[in-house]
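Hello forum,

I keep getting stuck at the same step: I have a sequence, I want structure tokens, and every attempt I make locally crashes halfway through. Rather than fight my setup again tonight, could one of you with a working pipeline run this one for me? It's a single chain of 121 residues.
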Amino acid sequence: QEQLVESGGGLVQAGGSLRLSCTTSLRAFTNYNMAWFRQAPGKELEFVAAMSRSGVSTVDDSVMGRFTISGDSAKNTVYLQMNSLKPEDAAIYFCAAALRGIPTPMVHDYRGQGTQVTVSS
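Reply #2:
Ran it on my machine without issues. Output:
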């Protein structure tokens, strides 16, 4: 069974950093496009960053210059490095995978259970 498991969340002060990991059991991991989403209380699930299977990455404007997505195919894992965190970055962060196209909050093949990120001001 294909699984995605996020880890690395926690409590951090504003301006601090966290690195989230998404370890997967995806067969043929390198065939998947990967993404990170987040959902803050009372808000909809929103796109944060994505990386195509060819290695091209993109991030949302709200995190550009602060967040970086990367992957390690040997470990079937994708990461989200988050620097200069702000209170508005607090949310549950999810990783997702899709074989066709970049995963979106509405369209993806698999999604993990999420990891909580809390940012104190």
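The radius of gyration is 13 Å. If your local run keeps crashing, start a new thread with the error log.
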